[in-house]
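Researcher: Here's my situation. A collaborator sent me these components and asked whether they could plausibly form a single complex. I don't have experimental data yet, so a predicted model of the whole assembly would be a useful starting point for our discussion.
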Amino acid sequence: MASIFSRIVAGEIPSWKVAEDENYYAFLDINPLAEGHTLVIPKKEVDYIFDLDDETYAGLWQFAARVAKAVRAAVPCKRVGVAVLGMEVPHAHIHLVPLQTEGDMDFRKEKKQLSPERFAAIATAISEAFNQ
Ligand code: AMP
């Protein structure tokens, strides 16, 4: 069965998309640690990031770097933190989290509750920065 993220790429499940190309897709995490928390995935469905073929793996990080620059341009933050967990969804993904402090990267902390309008505004801002 396709992963939830493959179903997002296929358009079967909605997402707050921020960037896409032929091989990669980036969208807002629905349970964000901070406004602008973004997930970057390969369209190719592989569970564990370190099992990706070399080309897809390298391309994923290159695409994530471009998305991170757009996140930083669109969301006020000191840095964009990077994490790979994969404890929940078995489809390789990189978390990009706008940081004000080190504690913003604590995945055990309570997630932000955002309205659909806020998610949409953030996604639009990141997407516009990405496409500039
Ligand atoms: P992990 O696999 O531990 O890296 O966590 C998976 C992440 O995916 C969590 O931060 C979830 O909030 C996020 N997530 C799960 N389902 C969705 C979805 N449909 N749209 C956006 N983010 C999701």
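Model: Some features of this prediction you could bring to your collaborator: The chain has a mean pLDDT of 97. The chain has one domain: 4-130.
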